[in-house]
Amino acid sequence: MNAAGIIFSNIHDKNIADLTKKRTMASVPFGCRYRLVDFPLSNMVNSGITDISIITHYNYLSLMEHIGSGKDWDLARRSGGVRILAPYITAYANYKNELYNTRLEALMSVQHSISKMQADYVVLSDCDGICNIDLKDMIRAHEESGAVLTMAVKRIPITPTNAEKNIIVSSDENGEITDLAVHPTFYDKAVADVNINVWVISRSFLLGALVNAQAHGYTSFSQDIIRRSIGREKMRIYRFEGYYANIDSITDYYNYSMELIRNSTVRHDLFDNAKRPILTKVRNSAPAQYTGSAKVSNSLVADGCIIEGTVENSILFRGVKVGKGSVVRNSILFMDTYVGENVSLNCVIADKYVLFHDDVTLSGHPELPFCVEKGRSL
């Protein structure tokens, strides 16, 4: 296997704008100690890919701090490793001299870097999808098929609501792609394969497609590259059977986070595979401290937390403090959030460094959680 990886860090920032005001989608915290970029990054590393590029747009300081040298993913290497590809990385990388808006424009902005890769195949992945996928098996299937592109798909029930949010993929009995419905407003089948934003693509085909896209002013990877190639090039699906969550809104982020608490099968599928661990930046924090007045049930609590009050059905990241008499229910508190005494929180997402003063009461709803921005004092 000879493959390189490309991760898109900013493509879906607008989906959860409340959490991406001061960071990219890739660096949004998830699951008590992880960032969303940890999933595609770990999927690649676990599959033997050690040459990985992360394309950025703007607002990527938090991402750079999280990735660092890449040593936590065993990517601090003299050859290959992980690198951040910023906008305007060379004088001729961005021929329009403006920031990209689509995945295809992002690829065109780093075309020079792709041309310098030594790999035969490139694995493309977004950061809005949460899954633990065996990319080694997907690349093997791509090689054996002789296709120029293999798209990972997940078979799900289709409703009028989620049809418009997805790219629906049709294929024949051999798994070859026959049609693509990009965010259709109507779809007449009960179940269908949807794109999970992971592709294996032949590097030579990708470079040729980028040159063609520049010549014709194309902007959409799905519409202008994949859909136009159906029937002319061999493109296949790879059906993923494991757990997959697509974060399309702040409600999705909240509910998929809560699913880690409600459903042990989800936690097992994502995190309990010894051969494919989800890796993240290691912080040597002290263990969580629970005082005599603490009451904690059905929650995920990270290292460095101090709990003096009540925590129920919640996710607490590193360094969170919950004061005496306070009750935190159905909430997600990011790193170093401070909850004073006699505070009541329900269905709240608090970003990093939020301060809740004594006697504050806040409540959202599972379909509309109350979001508090980074560094806010209430």
Describe this structure in words.
By secondary structure, the protein is an alpha/beta fold. It folds into 2 domains: 3-271, Spore Coat Polysaccharide Biosynthesis Protein SpsA, Chain A (Alpha-Beta Complex), CATH 3.90.550; 289-372, 3 Solenoid (UDP N-Acetylglucosamine Acyltransferase, domain 1), CATH 2.160.10. Helices cover 23% and strands 28% of the residues. The chain is built from 10 helices and 28 strands. The protein has helices spanning 38-46, 61-67, 103-109, 111-116, 135-145, 160-163, 203-216, 221-229, 250-262, 264-271, and strands at 3-8, 29-30, 34-35, 51-55, 81-85, 121-125, 129-131, 149-157, 167-171, 177-182, 191-202, 235-239, 244-246, 289-290, 295-297, 300-301, 306-307, 310-312, 315-316, 321-322, 327-329, 332-333, 338-339, 344-346, 348-350, 355-356, 361-363, 370-372. The strands form 6 sheets. Strands 1, 4, 5, 6, 8, 9, 10, 11 and 12 form a 9-stranded mixed sheet that branches. It has a 5-stranded parallel sheet with strand order 14-17-20-23-26, with no helix packed on it. Strands 15-18-21-24-27 form a 5-stranded parallel sheet, with no helix packed on it. The protein is globular and about 65 Å long. The chain starts with a strand and ends in a 6-residue tail after the last strand. The model has no long low-confidence stretch (mean pLDDT 92).
